[in-house]
Amino acid sequence: MTIYMPASPGFTACRFGLETNTQKWESPLTKNVQRVLLGGGRWMATYTLPRMNRSDAAYWQAFLMQLEGGVNTFYGFDPDARNPRGVATGTPLVKGASQTGSTLLIDGCTANVTGWLMPGDYFACNGQMHMITTRADTNGSGETTLNFKAAMRNSPADNAVVTVRDTTCTMILTDDNQTVWQTGTRLGIYEGMSFSGVEVF
């Protein structure tokens, strides 16, 4: 079961980013280092909430309780980038099956747009969230090639939907000890809670 986070109150801080999976070998003779990028890059986040009264904190308590540690999943996201900087209009769809790697040809976008998506914008497709690394401009047919990280884990089908607003990834709590809250010197006022998640696939 995948659970949505409560809408309010908003976070006071968030640490969000991509854990890249790499491997390196260093020669004991020459100290030459060989590096390789592996699959399995995943999003990680730590969310921090403000001080709350019980009526607000109860929603977050219930959310954490529903996760039951690392059993159930939740929709994680970067709270500072819920909407793209680019125009991102139209109905974007994957153009062509069997695409792999860190580029994706799509169509269905508004035609002839400079900055349809901008570096740092997110999009989601085929159950995976990605960040745009170079500006995506559309041509007269509403097509563009997206350049992004992390690489696709699986090839999306032709005409698969590309989501460019309110993008999320599926996360679990990083351990079973995060369903915890604390009141301050005044009972009924909850100190800022925080919890951490990692993408699961």
Q: Helices, strands, pairings?
A:
Elements: E1 2-3, E2 13-19, E3 22-26, E4 33-37, E5 42-48, E6 52-53, H1 54-67, E7 73-76, E8 90-94, E9 103-109, E10 122-125, E11 128-132, E12 144-149, E13 169-173, E14 189-190, E15 194-199
Parallel strand pairs: 1-7
Antiparallel strand pairs: 2-5, 3-4, 5-15, 6-14, 7-13, 8-9, 9-12, 10-11, 11-12, 13-15
Kindly, what is the distance between the CA atoms of the first and last residues, rounded to a whole number of angstroms? 14 Å
Proportion in β-strands:
35-45%
Helix content range: under 10%
Largest sheet: 6 strands, mixed
Query: Judging by the overall fold, what is the CATH architecture of the largest domain?
Result: 2-Layer Sandwich
Using the CA coordinates, give the radius of gyration. Answer: 20 Å
CATH class of the largest domain: Alpha Beta
Number of domains: 2
Principal-axis shape equals globular
Describe this entry's structure for a reader:
With 201 residues, this protein is mainly beta. The chain starts with a strand and ends with a strand. The model has no long low-confidence stretch (mean pLDDT 94). The strands form four sheets. Strands 1-7-13-15-5-2 form a six-stranded mixed beta sheet, with helices on one face. The protein has a five-stranded antiparallel beta sheet with strand order 8-9-12-11-10, with no helix packed on it. It has a two-stranded antiparallel ribbon with strand order 3-4. The protein has one helix and 15 strands. Strand 10 and strand 11 form a beta hairpin. The protein has two domains: 108 residues, Phosphorylase Kinase, domain 1 (2-Layer Sandwich), CATH 3.30.200; 87 residues, Beta Barrel (Elongation Factor Tu (Ef-tu), domain 3), CATH 2.40.30.290.
